[in-house]
Amino acid sequence: MFLYITLGTNDLSRAQRFYDPVMATLGLIRARTLETEIGYAAPDDSRCRLWVTRPFDGRPATVGNGSMPALVAPSRDAVDAFHRAALAHGGSDEGAPGLRPFGPSFYACYVRDPDGNKLSAVCEEFPAS
């Protein structure tokens, strides 16, 4: 359904220091580095699906109230690692990892990046028994 998502930043180098380790917990890499934006992708994807960018209009980036990309995590451990990495690299907690009432195996966490953008990592797989 989505081709890509963009999140605004006012400090691209700070955003890179946050997103590189946080996206790595989900197996994503920084695939593009441009003067005004950085793009993340799965290693086998030819297209960046998440872009962190300075706004094209040159005005300051602002946070969308109610906006939040939810990123697929391959395991509950990856959700936990995403949350830890976000907090360790300048993000803030918006909801610790745990089961949520959106399905029997909906395991998620919620964080904000250093610019205030809200992100979620979600694993819907049941743990291996």
Structure overview:
This protein has helices spanning 12-24, 76-88, and strands at residues 5-8, 29-33, 37-41, 50-53, 70-72, 92-99, 107-112, 118-123. The model has no long low-confidence stretch (mean pLDDT 96). Helices cover 20% and strands 32% of the residues. It is globular, with a radius of gyration of 14 Å. Strand 6 and strand 7 (107-112) form a beta hairpin. It is α/β, with parallel strands linked by helices.
Q: What value does the average pLDDT take?
A: 96
Low-confidence stretches: none
In one word, what is the shape? globular
Summed up, the helix count is: 2
C-alpha Rg (nearest Å)? 14 Å
Total beta-strand segments: 8
> Could you tell me how far the N terminus lies from the C terminus, measured between alpha carbons in angstroms?
33 Å
SSE topology string: EHEEEEHEEE
Q: Biggest sheet, strands in spatial order?
A: 1-4-3-2
Structural category is: alpha/beta
**What proportion strand?**
25-35%
Main β-sheet description: 4 strands, mixed
Helix content: 10-25%
